[in-house]
Amino acid sequence: MSTPDTPAPAEPEGPKGHGDHEDRTKPGGEPPLKRALGPKLLILFVIGDILGTGIYATTGDVAGKVGGALWLPFAIGFAVALLTAASYVELVGKYPKAAGAALYTQKAFKVPFLTFVVAFMVMCSGLSSASAAARAFSGDYLGEFTDAVPPTLIAILFILALAAVNLRGVAESVKANVALTLVEVSGLAVILAIGAWAVFSGEGEPSRLTQIETGGTGYALLTGVLGATALGFFAFVGFEDSVNMAEETKNPARNFPRAIFIGVGVTGTIYVLVALVSSLLVDSETLSGSSGPLLEVVKAGGVDFPPKLFALIALFAVTNSALINIMMASRLCYGMANERILPPTMGKVLSGRRTPWVGIAFVSALAIGLVSTGEIEGLGDTTSFLLLCVFAVVNIAVLVLRRDPVDHHHFRTPTALPVLGALTSLILASPLADRGSDVYVRAGILLLTGIGLWVLNRVVMTAREKSGADAS
Questions:
Q1: Which of 134, 124, 230 is nearest to 442 (CA)?
Q2: φ, ψ for residue 37, nearest 5 deg
Q3: Rounded to an integer, what distance in angstroms lies between the CA atom of residue 85 and that of residue 72?
Q4: If you write DSSP's letter for every residue of 232-295 in order, what string do you get?
Q5: Cα separations (Å) of 289 from 220, 229, 272, 302, 306?
Q6: Alpha-carbon distance 93 to 208, whole Å?
Q7: I want to staple 46 with a disulfide (CB 3.0 to 4.6 A). Which of 52, 249, 263, 294 is the partner?
Q8: Residue 131 and residue 128: Cα distance in Å, rounded?
Q9: CA 297, 301, 303, 306: dihedral to nearest 10 degrees?
């Protein structure tokens, strides 16, 4: 998930807006980040950010909501993701800084509390995503190796293990991300290969692909499809993270449009194809009853591919997603503490390891609480709900910021796209999407926790300022 740090002063741009002046020093004597990412690595980074828990874990739950036409929610989610991606592309080209949704919100509305709420929602979406990954890890994929430990206990131990790795220190590198991406893609490539074999050999049940089973017609049909789409949208989250690499990308105004659109396009196409294969080979009831739905596809495909090997790939994919989300959330917590948005205690660093131990402990405790409150469907839907709210704000922000021209060339999305992006995001975040009340309760508690910390910090800071004024 994104880590909206406080935006740094803008770097000087060249006459064509290339922004590659990495030898220039920022105000205050701090050197800028090194622009090391070229277009190819950036594309792989975007793809790697999107791939992961969503498609491996929620395919079955989406099937449970919509039936055999499993591909339809993913296709609609693909279109909605492209609308919001276009807004992110315009904004990252216009403001090439590592700050994401929080930066755009602050520039557009200049309301610090709203900026905090957006930043905290992004952080919480990362935690709910990591919790969904923990549930996926403890389910049928791990069940290929052992079922001796209760799933909830495994999920909690999984979060604690991620916290331990995080405390020890995890150095992120794009090349490592590329390697992890290739492993995750290999699992989906297996699914597509099995599907191709099934098509050419006449296996599977094509009639399932047009079956929409939402428990009714008219309004019930609409809300059922919207609910499945909102949940399926969980698989597309991640492209918004890439904007945090803006200050480390060569010529971001030129390279980001291609990278984000290609990244969303590639993953969206893969997801729709995987959904088609899954429904072709396995009925929706079997898929919805499994916490490792793609494993059911491998077993039903009639291809001699070891289920344990695929389960291992899936475990690797969900672990990678969870680790990235926990790490990003803890760094966001640390960054907000340093900017005095959260209590300064949140910014404490472990001596020796130099990791934000209070932030890690805080987000890990929230993640454990989340793991204990729901299964993959509810946690994945919570992630989608939080980010859909953020995406609605970003789509509105891109329209507001048209009043703020910049002196370099950047991508400009057609006005209709952010309008549609805001509307579709709001619709999918609304009760029309037929999500459980637990999703709203969970998201509300998370947000109230953040607001409580924000209020506490304001009280403490005000008291300190008053004390300092009295002392002087």
A1: 124
A2: -90, 120
A3: 20
A4: HGGGGTTGGGGGGGGGGBSSHHHHHHHHHHHHHHHHHHHHHHHHHHHHHHS-HHHHHT-SSHHH
A5: 22, 19, 20, 20, 21
A6: 43
A7: 263
A8: 5
A9: 20
Instruction: State phi, psi for 352 to the nearest 5 degrees.
Output: 90, -65
Please name the residue that has the structure tokens 């329209």: 399
> Which of 294, 230, 284 lies closest to 74, judged by CA?
230
The number of residues in the chain equals 472
CA–CA separation, 117 and 136 (whole Å)? 28
Buried b or exposed e, range 7-30, using 16+ CB within 10 angstroms: bbeebebeeebbbeeeeeeeeeee
Q: Which are the contacts of 196, defined by CB distance < 8 A and separation ≥ 6?
A: none
Low-confidence ranges of the chain (pLDDT < 50): 1-30, 33, 170-174
Judged by DSSP in three states, 37 sits in strand
The one-letter code for the residue type at 242 is S
What are the structure tokens assigned to 256, written together?
Answer: 């980001």
Backbone angles phi, psi at 214, to 5 degrees: -110, 5
Joined tokens for residue 137 = 């890890």
Query: How many other C-beta atoms are found inside a 10 Å radius of the C-beta of residue 434?
Result: 20
Give the whole-angstrom CA distance, residue 27 versus residue 9. 7
Phi, psi at residue 249, to the nearest 5°?
A: -110, 135
